[in-house]
Specification:
By secondary structure, this protein is α/β, with parallel strands linked by helices. The protein folds into two domains: about 1-165, no CATH class; about 255-380, CBS-domain (Roll). The protein has twelve helices and eleven strands. The longest helix is centred in the first third of the chain and has 32 residues, at about 55-85. It is found in: Cell membrane. One of its GO terms (biological process) is proteolysis.
Length: about 375
């Protein structure tokens, strides 16, 4: 399921490794589903389908199947990411979390054709994996390793299920993105195409929640709760995807200069953190400030860099020690597009950026101000 950065809650996770420059991360919620799948396979599925083995064999088979299932999810998401990179887009990260995986695309596809290619390659990779696992199962059966063959048969089936589920024509599933690419191509409007596929996706999400409710009342509590959670998540992402397209359209053609703040309140790098809190954060109410010395910009300091410090650290540390130093990652130009500025904020996880013109700071742009501009513009444009 490809996604933009803003579609998934920005939580910390465990960084595993990098593939083709893409960080593979596990969200802490992933361990919940990992344990649930491992337990259900080791205690339920394998003992029921293939009786006669000892408990250790079932747990070993369950562990192998669970690990390879999540490797399949990584490959599915990696296929989206590699296709996007091939089409000139930047991919920061793939995150495994409680509902599966998310490829964090930094921007929308530029054309309906690109959208189609990025979306369709995911299910195709799942079907290819199903063929590979089916072949492995056949080879193991021929070698009379029937129990391990069952593990790979399960993996073949689950990859087919993953591919088919993702082909459901509702945003944000891959099938919804394929449909969005077609509607975008037919209408010329990505906003209209996203609205239609998002509505279908939300309808599918509601259907999952209704089915989950019936399952709960019929005695299948865990399965029903799971269906409701998946439905709630899909509905939220579907609406978020449509709102993000509207935001991008509202920012189209607008430069940073039109929105930036020119009257800035700056702080000294030699100021104690305790004074920064009392004289600036509590007085002005801003969540970040430029750090300047002798009219030279040195960086920015934000509330997030202060809030977790101990009382002793607040008294003994200076702004210089905790600030984010000046770099191109926290700066934009006055003629840069507002959409690019928002993208940089998301990529760098920053709530404000410095506006530099010929190495001189001329303003500041904040995420709060940017979204206020979007809201007012959308209000006047109906």
């Amino acid at each position: 399921m490809p996604s933009k950065k803003g579609e998934v809650p920005g939580r910390e996770g465990i960084n595993l490794f990098r593939i083709a420059g893409i960080q593979i991360t596990i969200d802490f919620s992933w361990f919940i589903i990992f344990i649930l799948i491992l337990w259900s396979l080791s205690v339920g599925y394998f003992p029921k389908e293939f009786p006669g083995q000892n408990a250790l064999a079932y747990w070993f088979a369950g562990l192998i199947a669970t690990l390879l299932f999540f490797l399949s999810v990584v490959i599915h998401e990696l296929s989206h990411s590699l296709m996007a990179i091939r089409l000139g887009m930047k991919i920061n990260e793939i995150t495994l979390f409680i509902f599966g995986g998310i490829s964090k695309l930094s921007e929308e596809a530029r054309t309906p054709q690109d959208e189609f290619k990025i979306a369709v390659v995911g299910p195709l990779s799942s079907f290819a994996l199903a063929i590979v696992f089916r072949g492995a199962a056949g080879a193991l059966t021929a070698l009379q390793f029937s129990f391990m063959a069952a593990v790979f048969s399960y993996l073949s089936w689950i990859n087919v299920a993953l591919g088919v589920f993702n082909l459901i024509p509702g945003f944000p599933l891959d099938g919804g993105r394929v449909l969005r690419a077609f509607l975008w191509w037919k209408t010329g409007s990505i906003a209209r195409a996203t609205k239609w596929t998002s509505d279908i996706g939300k309808g599918f999400a509601v259907a999952l929640m209704v089915i989950g409710t019936f399952q709960i009342f019929s005695g299948r509590l865990l399965g029903g709760i799971w269906m409701i959670f998946i439905g709630m998540f899909l509905r939220w992402v579907a609406e978020g995807g449509y709102q993000e397209v509207l935001i991008r359209q509202a920012l189209e053609g607008v430069s940073v200069r039109e929105v930036m703040v020119t009257q800035m309140v700056s702080v000294s790098p030699e100021m104690k953190v305790s004074d920064l809190i009392s004289s600036f954060f509590l007085k002005y109410g801003y969540t970040g400030y430029p750090v300047m010395e002798n009219d030279e910009i040195l960086g920015v300091v934000s509330l997030s860099q202060v809030k977790d410090l101990t009382d002793e650290e607040k008294e003994n540390r200076k702004v210089r020690e905790i600030m984010t130093a000046l770099s191109k990652e926290i700066c934009v130009g006055p003629e840069d597009s507002l959409a690019d500025a928002l993208k940089k904020m998301i990529q760098q996880n920053m709530s404000r950026l410095l506006v530099l013109d010929k190495n001189q700071v001329v303003g500041l742009i904040t995420k709060t101000g940017l979204f206020r501009f979007i809201e007012i513009k959308r209000l006047f444009e109906g």
